[in-house]
Amino acid sequence: MNSNPLRSLAIGLTAASLACALHAQPASKVSDGVVRIGVLTDMSGVYSDLAGPGSVTAAQMAVEDFGGKVLGTPVEVISADHQNKPDLAANTARQWFDTRQVDAIFDLVSSPISLAVMEIARQKNKIAFVNGSGTSRVTNDSCNANTVHTSWDSYSQSYSMIDAIAKQGGDTWFFVTLDNAGGQSVEKDGIEAVKAAGGKVVGSVRFPLNTPDFSSYVLQAQASKAKVIGLIASGADTVNAVKAINEFGLTKQQKVAALVTFLPEIHSLGLDAAQGLILNEAFYWDTDADTRKFSERFFAKTRKMPDSVHAGVYSSVTNYLRSVQAAGTDDTAAVMKKMKETPLNDFYARNGSVREDGRLIYDMRLVQVKKPSESKKPWDYYNVLATIPAAQAFQPLSKSTCGLVKK
Questions:
Q1: How far is Cα 17 from Cα 20, in angstroms, rounded to an integer?
Q2: What is the pLDDT of residue 14?
């Protein structure tokens, strides 16, 4: 029996100190004592409805659902408006990494934005999640080890949709394309997909971002007499383009395939104008119980249903925090290693996994916008035509030009 009270106290303090040290060990591996997440998005421009404030809300929901902490340290969300200016986006990312100690940036809607920021992330050895950009360059010639592409891309939006339409007789195409890196990438893959399906591209025209009047572009598409108009636009551009297409009566003679269209655009157009549009979706809020549960919570905060960008941000933030937890650190290489070796299966990414090129693959859905008479409740907009398995939905690694892919 130990009768020395001072010695007993010392032993007790030593044991307590050891226990505290062991308990605090994971937190000591987190840089700066905070895991800081940045949402860099379009808060006020053409993409603000499909990304914007909704992406910030989705990130905050993911952090709250994770418990607000990882490895015993708090998780903080900050946000900024890139105004669709790549130089502003790059400067913001650089400042965040250098002075705000941001660990990972999310959203990055618009292809020029994503390409600019993922390069800054590579230089600063931080992580970029591309949730709202479609250029396949992200996982091809511009790929790097610090980027994860979770949203649709030009390959996933082209091949399965065009093949399905070609099987219904849509063998001649005219593209109306946004004139930026993302639009050009989708058009390139679209042309290849049309040829692969045995069809022919009879022409194309390109328009600048945030175009208010599509009359001249739509009239060129009508004059082409193509069976299918491939519309490569998103946000307000999609709304304006479809309004012009309806105004000039193109849908009476031609099909319209919306290769880069999201739920908010359908909502803005209304089913009378949007009915019959065919598109690919990474996420639809009314798919099953899990998608509805998240979406109803999101709606309570924002008064609108989430689209694939919002759902993708939530999924990406959650996956990032899980990877930090599993790695025991926020070190970039360790977190990316965990992310690439751990399968993902949530309400957004079914049968998902992050490949060596940074591409998150998962099941996609081919959908068609309902007729007004088919819609039974608010936001009930899509008929799901088919589920496209993850392995078929995205570009195979055998076609990749990413330097990280072992051939």
A1: 5
A2: 46
